[in-house]
């Protein structure tokens, strides 16, 4: 059984679809302000390794918009809390290049060692919010080769193409190599 340490139940639900024997540990931990998601994960893994017994995983993700020089990126959670999707769409008003990508870095603490698994999903910022599923920026993100936003997809469909889904597939392969899962 692996613990996923997150405050965000939606992340847990998506991850559990890919690795069945996940246990949700709903706790918050400090996220340092760093330049990369990888640095945030490194810090959080060492911080949490002093607090949590045994193996666990964490997830840090962000939305990177090309025409905004990768904003909000590592500030994604702060920006979502302050201006939300409505504010993001305002920032994008009149901008033709709507290319963006989501990135997830999953941190794994396994038998005293740290591992990082990365997943990226390219796509576009929609012109308006669409859909009811998912969370965060899902209503304004259209993955490449799709017309729907992530919020217009069931979890299974999002997982097949998403940043988190891709990182989780890598995690599953690693845990399989360690003999932890089938
Ligand atoms: P964090 O990984 O929890 O720090 O997420 C940063 C911000 O990006 C938060 O506002 C999340 O709601 C948002 N976010 C993270 N993952 C996703 C996703 O898969 N879809 C949409 N928004 C996301």
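Q: What amino acid sequence fits the structure above?
A:
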């Amino acid at each position: 059984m692996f613990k996923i340490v997150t405050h965000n139940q939606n992340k847990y639900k998506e991850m559990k679809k890919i690795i069945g024997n996940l246990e949700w540990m709903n706790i918050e931990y400090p996220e340092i302000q760093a330049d990369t998601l990888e640095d945030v994960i490194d810090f959080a893994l060492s911080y949490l390794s002093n607090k949590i017994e045994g193996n666990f995983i964490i997830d840090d993700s962000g939305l990177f918009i090309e025409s905004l020089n990768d904003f909000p990126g590592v500030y994604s959670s702060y920006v979502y809390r302050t201006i939300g999707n409505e504010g993001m769409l305002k920032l994008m008003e009149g901008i033709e290049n709507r290319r963006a990508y989501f990135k997830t870095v999953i941190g794994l603490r396994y038998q005293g060692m740290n591992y990082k698994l990365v997943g990226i999903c390219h796509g576009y910022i929609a012109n308006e919010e669409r859909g009811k599923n998912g969370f965060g920026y899902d209503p304004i993100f259209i993955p490449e080769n799709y017309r729907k936003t992530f919020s217009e997809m069931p979890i299974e469909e999002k997982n097949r193409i998403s940043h988190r889904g891709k990182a989780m597939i890598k995690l599953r392969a690693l845990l399989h190599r360690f003999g932890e899962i089938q």
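Q: And what stands out in the fold?
A: The first helix runs from residue 9 to 18.
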